[in-house]
Design brief:
Length: 100
């Protein structure tokens, strides 16, 4: 992961500290912690945004690739998605898909 990507993840995590990182997210692949800044990492956590735990990995990958390409409407996800390559996106998606 590049320094720029790592800095973006740290910035996002600090900006959205209202959703604390769980021990599960601490063991997640690099980049997944930045997701939990806005999306709850665990089922049952109140949030205005959709939780990612248990979603189909293919759905997450497709959504992230569409955000990155600019073909899916977004407010900030288009910029966030540009910070991840396909391998990182797949690792994050697979990790979230197995969270229950």
């Amino acid at each position: 992961m590049s320094v720029k990507r790592a800095a973006a993840g740290i910035l996002l995590a600090s900006m959205f500290a209202a959703y604390p990182l769980t021990s599960a997210i601490a063991a997640a692949p690099a980049g997944a912690a930045s997701c939990s800044g806005c999306h709850p990492a665990s089922p049952g956590v109140a949030s205005p945004l959709r939780g990612l735990a248990g979603l189909d990995a293919a759905y997450i990958v497709k959504a992230m690739q569409e955000f990155r390409a600019g073909s899916r409407p977004a407010t900030v996800m288009d910029r966030i998605a540009k910070g991840f390559d396909d391998e990182e996106i797949r690792a994050i998606a697979n990790w979230y898909a197995h969270q229950r």
